[in-house]
């Protein structure tokens, strides 16, 4: 197996784009995730036309600013303004925002009554409540899942150029080959993810929400799952693995609440969310950040590991079936 | 003589389609056996089964005395496979390619280095060992493909059409290398659809058609069966029509093949039929621009046995 691992490291040196993503893009994104998580609680600005700013408004989440004209759409996209409000003749406000319906109603309430609804929690507040570490790992989860598939590129490549077949005709079986691919991918995801977090925390003392040991354990759990998922995708699909994996990763990470907590009253959607391993992972991460221990999340951890095992077992089973049929 | 390969009653189907049917043959130690067959005859399937990468449905295969079903890992150690398609890494050097595949067979350290160098020398790529295959010509890549299969010094080398699509120089180099390997004690099963290659290197020839061995023997043994035959080729002034020339009364004619600018006629050599054939052609209004004759060859044998051209 060490021979296969050594060969993979030798070959990956020539995949400049994969190396660029792993060694440059990933650390940059991780640094950005840490920065955003540490600076996420800021006052969002509501632009109000001319002198329509109501008096006696006190709000921690929003700052009101008078403008002479409606800001361009780009100002909402780049976050300069959270909303634009213009007073109507009946005393209510016409509000333009990229935020959701709930936020729009909350802003209306703020401008007309002087305060936000009691149960309203804006995005920043939600992020603050989730914790810095949870936000960091939430951002990283999707990146790690996508990176895993990019790094298993050597496996589909071996299949398409006949070297997989040649390796299996040597004294090496598919289990050894896939185990080598698993370890290689795990190392290649884990190292460039863990290293920037550890360096930023150790050198600059930046708050990451966890101890280094906790980050090491949590990232290991995440990378095991990401590797198993990547191996499964690489086995099942011959082409467009990156596209497929990106689609699955983005959708599952959003509904699992990796970026912001998602709550739904739909029981079917709630059940689906609960089935996604990232949901368990985010609960674990949040719990650990707020002082709980790993034992309290033993079922969640077991579920993530079982899902990983399922992906690996499925990958091996599909590969074996194909080999028996002479498809490599 | 000891058998390096014994195949008995081997069967393999893809779905409902049988590809190998009750196949039986042996390869003796130290010989080069040419496995000759047209496309789709079952050569690659046979090679894949012997290479342990495809499971057969029934029958038995013994390689180096080991049973394919029971001792797969032992067989893998003594066999070197040259696959039909190139199976090398384009982005790493030739030396690293050979070294990697040889190390899968347990070679390491000085032994690995020496074997890698020897394999590269044997295929004439030692001077290019530090270069990457992506800069190689098609022939050089083919030679590297072979080097990757022989660096662990296997006792049995199975080659599946190793010279497809390469220049004559590289082909000659490969054929010479194969003869050298045999001199060094290796047994070689060489699958191809190039008749001239088999004629040049094989000690024995197995003709495979529709999943069965339909003839086997040395080239002379196979051709002996047809020693009383002669084949005439006529180039005509225009494309001949099948109904236009009356050969029906000429009993010595064994086969006639109509081509774009001529025809090929095979006759029993004991019959002095050439003058009758020429008369039949001229009587049909054709002019003979040139004529050549050929005694029985492996190609004649193959065509007669299978009814197929090897390059079909």
What would you note in describing this structure?
The complex is a heterodimer of chains A (328) and B (312). A 4-stranded mixed β-sheet of chain A has the order 2-1-3-4, with helices on one face. Chain A is α/β, with parallel strands linked by helices and 328 residues long. The two termini of chain A are 19 Å apart. Helix content of chain A is 65%, strand content 7%. Chain A is elongated, with a radius of gyration of 24 Å. In chain A, helix 2 runs antiparallel to helix 6 (132-151), helix 2 (16-38) packs across helix 9 and helix 6 (132-151) packs parallel to helix 10 (212-236). Chain A has helices at 2-12, 16-38, 73-77, 101-113, 123-130, 132-151, 154-160, 163-169, 174-204, 212-236, 241-255, 267-275, 277-289, 298-324; strands spanning 44-49, 62-67, 83-87, 93-97. Chain B is built from 10 helices and 14 strands. The two termini of chain B are 36 Å apart. Chain B has helices at 43-50, 72-78, 94-103, 109-122, 138-150, 168-183, 195-201, 219-224, 274-283, 298-306, and strands at 3-14, 17-28, 32-36, 58-63, 66-67, 79-82, 156-160, 187-192, 204-209, 212-217, 229-236, 253-258, 262-268, 288-295. Chain B has 312 residues and is of the alpha/beta class. Chain B has 2 domains: 3-223, P-loop containing nucleotide triphosphate hydrolases (Rossmann fold), CATH 3.40.50; 229-295, Alpha-Beta Plaits (2-Layer Sandwich). In chain B, the strands form 3 sheets. A 6-stranded mixed β-sheet of chain B has the order 6-7-8-3-9-10, sandwiched between helices. In chain B, strands 2-1-4-5 form a 4-stranded antiparallel β-sheet, covered by helices on one side. Chain B has a 4-stranded antiparallel β-sheet with strand order 12-13-11-14, covered by helices on one side. At the A-B interface, helix 1 and helix 8 of A face helix 2 and helix 3 of B.
């Amino acid at each position: 197996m060490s021979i296969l691992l050594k060969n993979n490291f030798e070959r990956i040196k020539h995949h400049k784009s994969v190396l660029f993503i792993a060694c440059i893009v990933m650390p940059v994104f991780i640094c950005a995730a840490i920065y955003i998580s540490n600076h996420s609680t800021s006052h969002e600005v509501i632009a109000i036309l001319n002198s329509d700013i109501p008096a006696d408004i006190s709000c921690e989440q929003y700052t009101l600013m008078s403008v002479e004209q409606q800001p361009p759409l780009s100002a909402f996209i780049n976050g300069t303004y959270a909303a634009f409000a213009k007073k109507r003749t009946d005393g209510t406000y016409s509000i333009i925002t990229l935020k959701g319906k709930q936020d729009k109603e909350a802003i209306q309430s703020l401008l007309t009554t002087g305060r936000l609804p009691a149960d309203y929690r804006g995005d920043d507040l939600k992020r603050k409540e989730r914790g810095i570490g949870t936000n960091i790992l939430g951002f990283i989860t999707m990146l790690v899942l996508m990176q895993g598939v990019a790094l298993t590129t050597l496996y589909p490549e071996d299949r398409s150029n006949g070297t997989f077949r040649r390796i299996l005709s040597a004294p090496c079986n598919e289990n050894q080959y896939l185990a080598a691919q698993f370890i290689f991918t795990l190392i290649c995801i884990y190292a460039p993810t863990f290293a920037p977090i550890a360096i930023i925390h150790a050198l600059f003392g930046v708050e990451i929400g966890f101890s280094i040991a906790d980050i090491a354990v949590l990232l290991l759990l995440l990378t095991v799952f990401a590797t198993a998922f990547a191996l499964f995708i690489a086995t099942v699909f011959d082409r467009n693995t990156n596209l497929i994996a990106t689609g699955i990763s983005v959708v599952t990470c959003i509904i699992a609440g990796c970026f912001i907590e998602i709550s739904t009253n739909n029981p079917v959607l709630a059940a689906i969310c609960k089935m996604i391993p990232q949901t368990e992972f985010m609960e674990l991460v949040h719990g650990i950040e707020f002082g709980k221990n790993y034992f309290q999340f033993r079922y969640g951890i077991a579920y993530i590991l079982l899902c990983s095992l399922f992906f690996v077992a499925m990958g091996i089973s599909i590969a074996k079936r194909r080999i028996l049929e002479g498809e490599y | 003589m000891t058998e390096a390969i014994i195949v008995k009653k081997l069967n393999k189907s893809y779905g409902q389609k049988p590809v190998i049917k009750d196949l039986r043959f042996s390869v003796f130690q130290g010989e080069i056996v040419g496995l000759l067959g047209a496309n789709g005859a079952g050569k690659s399937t046979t090679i894949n089964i012997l290479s342990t990468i495809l499971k057969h449905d029934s029958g038995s295969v013994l390689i180096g005395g080991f049973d394919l079903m029971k001792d797969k890992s032992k067989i893998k150690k003594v066999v070197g496979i040259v696959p039909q398609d190139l199976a090398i890494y384009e982005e790493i050097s030739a030396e690293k390619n050979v070294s990697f595949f040889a190390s899968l067979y347990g070679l390491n350290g000085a032994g690995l280095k020496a074997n890698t160098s020897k394999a590269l020398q044997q295929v004439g790529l030692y001077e290019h060992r530090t270069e990457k295959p992506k800069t190689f010509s098609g022939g050089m890549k083919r030679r590297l493909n072979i080097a990757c299969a022989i660096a662990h010094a296997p006792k049995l080398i199975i080659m599946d059409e190793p010279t497809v699509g390469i220049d004559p120089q590289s082909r000659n180099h490969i054929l010479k290398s194969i003869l050298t390997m045999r001199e060094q004690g290796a047994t070689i099963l060489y699958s191809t659809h190039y008749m001239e290659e088999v004629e040049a290197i094989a000690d024995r020839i197995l003709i495979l058609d529709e999943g069965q061995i339909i003839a086997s023997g040395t080239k002379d043994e196979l051709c002996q069966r047809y020693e009383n035959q002669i084949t005439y080729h006529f180039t005509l002034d225009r494309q001949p029509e099948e109904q236009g020339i009356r050969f029906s009364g000429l009993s010595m004619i064994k086969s006639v093949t109509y081509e774009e600018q001529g025809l090929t006629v095979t006759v029993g050599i004991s019959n002095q039929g050439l003058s009758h054939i020429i008369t039949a052609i001229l009587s049909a209004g054709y002019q003979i621009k040139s004529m050549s004759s050929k005694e029985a060859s492996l190609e004649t044998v193959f065509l007669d046995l299978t009814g197929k051209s090897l390059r079909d």
